[in-house]
Amino acid sequence: MNSEPSVTEGVFSDWSTRRWLRVGVATTLVVLAVLGSLGGWAMWRNTQLTAELVDRRSPTLIEAIRVEEALVNQETGIRGYGLSGRTDFLQPYQQGVAEEKAALGRLRPLVKDDAPARADLAEVEKLAGHWQERIARPIAQAPAGDAVKIATARVTEGKTTFDALRRAMSRQQDHLQSERAATTHRLRQSETLRNWMFAVIALVIVLVAAVIFEGLRRGVTGPLSRLSSSARDVAQGRFDRSITVSGPADLRMLASDVESMRRRLVEELQFSEASRRMLDEQAEDLKRSNTELEQFAYVASHDLQEPLRKVSSFTQLLQRRYGGQLDAKADQYIAFAVDGANRMQSLINDLLAFSRVGRVLNDHQTVDLEGVMSRSLDNLSVAVEETGAAITHDALPTVVGDATQLGMLWQNLLSNAIKFRSPDRPPHIHISAAREDGMWEFAVSDNGIGIAPEFQEKVFVLFQRLHTKDAYPGTGIGLAMCKKVVEFHGGRISIDPDYARGTRVMFTLPVATAGTEVAEGETQP
Are the C-beta atoms of residues 390 and 429 closer than 8 Å to each other? Predict the structure, then answer.
């Protein structure tokens, strides 16, 4: 069988499917762990830069600007108060002092880990403190008239000092703006790196999935599909196709086991075929033998009729003509000969009827068992009248079969029930019928002498008798003929072992279905 190259060839040829899966899963987990670590680092880096920008750089710049605004408000208020002497100009100054204090309180923690920013803030605070010490507080604390004089005297110093403070604050904000811009730039670079990294991770995951899929296809599903296809070929009867599969070691071993099973099946089929041919030959020989035996029984029975009729006629003629003229011994011998000829005649007739069942009598039609029962009772009317027999029956169905054979069945069963009656009571016979599981179940029950359990199978064997001919006349063919008729119609017959008041013969006949019924006009009367 041709197959594509397998990933397990060469040094990996001894690897099993479980080992391949373990290695594949472990490799995949390692790759995913590395990729997850890289992705996590990228996310952490991006988060750190975002936090630095949002939580430190931007707030630092904002608070530095607020410090500047607070100092400008202070300078404006002091300058107005120094020029006009009006105390309402001190309100912006006082508000600016409060805002400066609050802004510096927020700014100092933000720059504690940044040396350049701390240096810039220290310079701003130094210059602001010098301006406030030399200019702002003396003017703010002086009365209106003195405040104007102090402001006029120190106008040049105040302008120089505050300009230096302005330059310091400008340098501070420039540095902070530069740091914020650098952080923003690094954040954008981190976002770009993060996006590229996630794109690479997605690509690697797709590649790993493709490699896993292809590995499973080549190493597991492909060999399994080829093995399944080969197994289906064998299951469909193509036993000439050998099974060879490449792949992991355990799959190759499984294929070897299936191949061994295929060879065993081939051997068993060859043996079965030889046995079947032998059985067919034996069945054909048995069929031919049975046909020949039936033909022989029919021919022998038929050909014995004429010489036996001649013997019987002449012995009866001897008995009529010379009866009483010879001695008693001669009369006894003649009686023996006449009785033997009559019994032989009866035996041949029964044997001839038995051989005809299924061979000559084979006319399947819809048969009304009520009519068959009525004719059987008419034929047995003399015996019924002499014995005082009471015969009852349930409503009998219509079946498909041979009317003549079914008539023989009823007549033999009823005549046996009358013949083997109990000597101390008249015979009572009842025929029951019930439908169950697609079959009609019949039972012929009597109150006669019964049949011992050890003889309940033997009575259906040809020529088997349980009593002498003097006690009960007959040839021993009756129940054997009943069994042959019932089995010919697809039923079964037996003696009920649990019936103790006499004998109950049970037999079954198939229910007439729509496919087996013939036209109403063909129904037997």
Answer: yes
